[in-house]
Known about the structure:
There is one protein chain. The chain has helices spanning 14-31, 41-57, 65-75, 82-91, 96-108, 112-134. The chain is mainly α. The protein folds into 2 domains: 6-57; 61-137, no CATH class. The longest helix is centred in the last third of the chain and has 23 residues, at 112-134. The protein is elongated and about 60 Å long.
Amino acid sequence: MYSYPPLVDIGYSLPYVAVFCMYLCAYLISGSKTWKQYFSYSHAVFFVLLVYFIFVGFRGYICTDWYNYYPMFRETPCLLDFDEFVSYSNSVFTEKGYLFYISLFKVFCNDYVVFQAFSVLIDLVLIHLCIKRYSPN
């Protein structure tokens, strides 16, 4: 009989604690007068975005988020076979734009983790541009 790992384990929270500590260090370093000569505010922003991209973009098959998205990614045909794509998109009850996005991505790469990382990268760039545009700093 298969035994599942315990759900209450400190080991599951260690990656989140590590990311929090990295963010805290970046915050403290960016505000320190001693370190300001070596690291500017833009260095801290880049570091925070890079850590976030690696942590969230390459999460793979963690939790239940992938349970619905991975089969959809696997079953969606490549956009190069347009007739099959149209037939598939009419047969499933999913947003056509998301299916088109998956199908267009599969022209270049057929790996779900790379698709996930690319999607997170798009999100990060758009969020960063909005914050940069509407923030007083």
